[in-house]
Amino acid sequence: MRNVLVAAATRWESEPIRRALSRPALVLRTGLGPAAASAALARLETEPALVVSAGFAGALQPDLRCGDLVACQLTPCPQAAKALETSAVGLGVVPRFGRILHSDFVLTTPEQKREAGERSGALAVDMESSAIAAWARGRGLPALAVRVVFDELDRPLPAAGWAMLNPFFWPRLAAFWPVQRRAAAVLSSVMRSFLEAL
Which domains does the chain have, with CATH numbers? Predict the structure, then answer.
C-alpha cells in the first residue's frame, strides 16, 4: 500500500518511526492532544490511502506492561489490522486489539487510570487517536491506532503529566529515559515491519 500517513504527537514518537522506515510514508508530528492533532491534519494537502495513529499510550489494564502493543481499528481496516498482527508477531510482539480510550489530559495517577479502565473496559488511553479517527472517518479513509504502552497502570507520572511527552521536560525526568527508550524501540520496529508488509 502506498501513501500511508503516520500521525504521532511528539518527536519522541515520530522520530524513531521516521528513522526506522525503509519505505516512504508521511510521518506527521501533530502535537499533543485532540486540538493540535485536528489542526495538523487540517493543514494536510494529500489524501492518504491509510491513516495510522502511532505513539505511546497509558495502560488501563493491570496485565499490560511497558513495551506492550495495543491496537484498534479507528475506522474499518481489516487488512491493515491483519498486516500489523502478522508483522508484530514476527518480531515476537503480541498485539492486543481492543478499545483505546480518549482523554483530553494525561492520566497521571494509578487511581485515575484504574477508574478509567474499569469504567470503559479500554486497554489503554491516549490523547490524539479520537481526533485522527474523526478526520479519517470524515474522508472515508481506513484508520488504525498502533500504540505502545509507556506507563503501566500502577506507575504514577509526575504531577505535570502532560510534560512527560514534552521534549523540553525530558532532561528533568531521567528516571523515565529507560521507559521511553523501550517504548520507542518497540514502536519503531513494529512500525517498520508493518509498513513494509502493506
Answer: 4-197 (3.40.50.1580)
